[in-house]
Specification:
By secondary structure, this protein is of the alpha+beta class. Strands 2-1-6-5-4-3 form a six-stranded mixed sheet.
Length: 148
């Protein structure tokens, strides 16, 4: 039962991202999250609030027509009111008929607060990218045109 709730919290994070439902994304995070995408971006991990995380994602992802995150092979380790989840992730980013795909594994930590599982740590272990690797730049350009 708890394992299902934990996995659903992780799924809701990525589903909310694909839906551009930033409130849904913020709702599954603790007040402070250690975000670690260093393996892909080279940027050192750091503690961020849910608003800081969604502001960053909102300033990039809407430049794509859509995104589709696919998660699989969840492994949950429960330690009382804390949990570790490892899983495989693949993210497709679309502009028109073009797609840019990132794949890797994720490590996520959650804590149970007031009966609700919340994400406290999110780490991407980047494996590879494929498709049109110029799409991120196109997405940024499209978004800056929309905002000006």
């Amino acid at each position: 039962m708890e394992g299902h709730k934990i996995i659903q919290t992780v799924i809701d994070l990525f589903k909310g991202t694909d839906e551009r439902d930033w409130q849904k994304v913020r709702n599954v995070m603790a007040d402070s999250v250690l975000l670690d995408y260093r393996s892909m971006t080279g940027i050192e991990p750091g503690m961020q609030t849910p608003v800081q995380i969604t502001d960053a994602w909102e300033s990039f992802l809407p430049g794509f027509d859509k995104t589709d995150h696919q998660l699989s092979e969840f492994r949950v380790k429960l330690h009382g009111n804390e949990a570790d989840v490892d899983y495989i992730g693949k993210a497709d980013h679309f502009i028109g008929d073009e797609v840019w795909t990132i794949s890797g594994t994720y490590q996520t930590k959650l804590v149970k607060q007031n009966g609700t599982w919340l994400i406290t740590y999110l780490r991407l272990n980047y494996d590879k990218q494929s498709g049109n690797t110029a799409l991120p730049q196109q997405a940024k350009a499209r978004l800056s045109k929309l905002q000006s």
